[in-house]
Amino acid sequence: MTQGVNLDGRVALVTGAARGLGREMGLALARAGARVVFSDVDAAALAALAAEPAFAEIAGRATTRACDISRREDCEAAVAAAIAAFGRLDILVNNAGRGPNHVINSPRTASLKFWEADPERWSEVIATNVVGTFLMSRAAAPGMIAAGWGRVVNITTSLPTMQRRADSPYGVSKVAIETETLIWARDLAGTGVTCNSLIPGGAADTDFVSPGTREAARAGKSVLLPPSVMIPPLLWLASGLSDGVTGGRFVGKLWDDRLPAGEAAARAREAPVLRTP
Fold this sequence. Notes:
Helix 1 links the parallel strand 1 (about 10-15) and strand 2 (about 35-40). The chain starts with 10 loop residues before the first strand and ends in a 7-residue tail after the last strand. It has helices at about 20-30, 45-50, 55, 70-85, 100-105, 120-145, 160-165, 170-185, 210-220, 230-240, 260-270, and strands at about 10-15, 35-40, 60-65, 90-95, 150-155, 195-200, 250, 270. It has about 280 residues and is an alpha/beta fold.
């Protein structure tokens, strides 16, 4: 766990928080003292989360909210619900998204080669991952700017995944989120609100993993990272320790918790996907 992080008084909203990376990040924020809205499109999964012992441990500091981030009205309502429940919103973790399986599982998809993929499912990946991240951030930013402090953390993926053959909807969406991060960091300059991206640094053990990747892990040909790999850099990014750090790209598996937080963050920071010439 990142040393020296105290999020008492802060309020966070985590999207895609019913399971996987979002669940772990939401629980970690609450355990660090933040009040947290766990948001997800899957209301049943949120109800199951709320019934878990881990959720009971953060009673009074957490609530759930069903939200489809591809819908503007849902995003605005989720932000309003966070403010109604806890009085403010300081931290937004844009984790929700659709993975390759969303396209693979369509009966209209012959393969993930772009000319054989279901165009409707392909478009839905972009609508959720790219447009949804924008809609949620657009809803959250004005309040943070008015308060003079805030954090937007966008969850993306590794460079190899962005360029992987036969994976264009997911890879394209994550490249777009990286550019959103860089542009928004500049837009927010001087406001006290920062925008950074965070990745596990490899395939994480979540529902996003393709059957082939999971089978390779079972065969010992690859390793799936635990979702908890995101926690140390996220807590640092969500805290005052990262004041002034914006437009960065951080890798969970590169974080060395034996180091002071500032040194660990510097080691975990990766060059941006797009570089200024």
